[in-house]
Amino acid sequence: MQHTSHELFRQWANVVNLGGTAVQIGTRPDLPDLKGAFGILRKWLWLLLYVLLAGVTFIYRYELLAWTDLHQSIPLLLAMATLFALVPVIPYKFVIIAFGYSYGTTTAAWICWLGTTLAAMLVYGGARTIFRHQARSYLERIRGLNRFTTWMEAHPFMGVMSMRLLPIVPQMAVNIYAGITYTPFWVFMLATAIGKMPAIFVFAYAGAQAETSIWLSLAILAGYLVFMAIVLLLFRFRSRNKA
Predict the structure, then answer these.
(1) What 3-state DSSP class applies to 90?
(2) Neighbouring residues of 61: CB distance < 8 A, sequence distance ≥ 6
(3) Following DSSP, what letter does each residue of 70-88 receive, concatenated?
(4) Which residues contact 202 (CB under 8 A, 6 or more apart)?
(5) Sign of the torsion formed by the C-alpha atoms of 177, 181, 186 and 191
(6) Is pLDDT above 90 for 167?
(7) Residue 167 gets which letter from DSSP?
(8) Are 105 and 204 a contacting pair, CB within 8 Å?
(9) pLDDT of amino acid 141
């Protein structure tokens, strides 16, 4: 008797459905998980690409700044501001001061503000889509961070904006941490945009004043750091009282 391929496939499917337990057809346990392997490879490729970008930026950091001075266009300034925020081979506060010295307070402030906000969104998106599950499992092993992560996820806007206002907190770490926790994108973006404004304006203004008086520029920076130190002490004092 001749059987069609459809009937043969149906009979074979009934055989492999043993004891009412469905068996996945067409898979072999001895074969590697190609989807999982591709996902791991993709993560390493993104990491390698970022390392290469960081290396090139670090090697040619001064040449890039000099090239930016020679070609003073808004798109180029924005690209450089985003690049140095995305790859922090130079402390970004120095970048803001240099931009303020060369282009004035207003131009430097909004260019650096927009550039660092775009870079923060890129890092947040990368951490959220590529490394979230692995990084999340790693965070759960650190006991000291569990309490802060719980508070962060309960108050995402206040948490992100507070860390943006404090100059001692690495901003790249804030981007990654917000990406691997359950911080909504729009909340992160709004808190980042607002929280970065004061420091960027102060450093841009200090850089602009350095052209006429370096001592005035240093006084502005010192006053800002003292003010933020007082805010940090008040925050720690309030946190201890609540505990």
Answers:
(1) coil
(2) 84, 89, 90
(3) HS--HHHHHHHHHHHHHS-
(4) 220, 221, 224
(5) negative
(6) no
(7) T
(8) yes
(9) 65
What's the token pair of residue 5? 């391929």
In the chain, the amino acid numbered 95 is V
Contact at 8 Å (CB) between 199 and 171?
no
DSSP string covering 188-229: HHHHHHHHHHHHHHHHHHHHHHTTT-HHHHHHHHHHHHHHHH
Exposed e or buried b per residue across 182-199, where buried means at least 16 C-beta atoms within 10 angstroms of its C-beta: ebeeebbbebbbebbbeb
Q: Could you tell me where the beta strands, DSSP code E, fall in the chain?
A: none
Task: Answer whether 122's CB lies under 8 Å from 232's CB.
Answer: no
Minimum mean pLDDT among 15-19, 61-65, 151-155, 167-171: which range?
15-19
Residue 183: CB partners within 8 Å, gap ≥ 6? Answer: 152, 153, 156, 159, 160
